[in-house]
Specification:
Elements: H1 20-45, H2 52-57, H3 65-86, H4 98-108, H5 111-124, E1 129-135, E2 141-147, E3 160-166, H6 173-176, H7 180-188, H8 193-205
Antiparallel strand pairs: 1-2, 1-3
Bound molecules: fe (ii) ion.
């Protein structure tokens, strides 16, 4: 059975950047629904439960189109939100140190260029979707965006997301209305770079 991560902070802990009602609705309704629907789909289809990254990296092996679609949407929603909620913190913001910090500078020139690149991709994603920072086993970093609940794992190129910005309207509309760019700016104030660096280390070490 796939389980939502336990939120490591209270719903109102990310105020004023992310408001409490958005957090509560996002986690207890949207994320909960993706998780339930994923578990239902896997169980109903009799698919052997495997690690979520393996499941999402091998969607092509699911023959039934409806089941494949249900797992793509809900498995993506389950995984993406576990990543999202676990990389925010009331003590977040700033810049990463150590290996990840150096690699970001090497790849993008500077932290601000990285931030601008990811922000532009997230802001420019048409409709619902995500902006991503991903890494591969060699430690390489790339930015991308995706529609709906798709994520870089589904592209099968060895890149694993280590940070995702949810740009579905449910992530920001209650507070920011149509101002997605303002939400993206606020998201950077709550990024838990320690958690992202741990994700990076896991990809390299795995
Ligand atoms: Fe979301």
């Amino acid at each position: 059975m796939y389980n939502q991560i336990k939120l490591p902070y209270a719903y109102d802990a990310l105020e004023p950047h992310i408001d409490a009602l958005t957090m509560e609705t996002h986690y207890s309704k949207h994320h909960a629904a993706y998780t339930k629907n994923l578990n239902d789909a896997v169980q109903k289809a009799g698919i052997e439960e495997k690690e979520i990254t393996s499941l999402l990296s091998s969607l092509d092996s699911i023959a039934d189109e409806a089941v494949r679609k249900a797992i793509r949407n809900n498995g993506g929603g389950f995984y993406n939100h576990n990543l999202y909620f676990s990389t925010m913190s009331p003590d977040g913001g700033g810049q990463p140190q150590g290996t990840l910090g150096r690699e970001l500078e090497k790849t993008f020139g500077s932290f601000s260029e990285f931030q601008a690149g990811l922000s532009n991709l997230a802001a420019g994603q048409f409709g619902s979707g995500w902006g991503w920072l991903s890494a591969n086993r060699d430690g390489k970093l790339i930015l991308s965006s995706s529609a709906n609940q798709d994520n870089p794992l589904m592209e099968g190129n060895g890149f694993v997301p280590i940070l995702g910005i949810d740009v579905w309207e449910h992530a920001y509309y209650l507070k920011y209305k149509n101002l997605r760019a303002d939400y993206i700016k606020a998201f950077f104030d709550v990024i838990d770079w320690k958690a992202v660096a741990e994700n990076y280390d896991k990809v390299i070490g795995g």
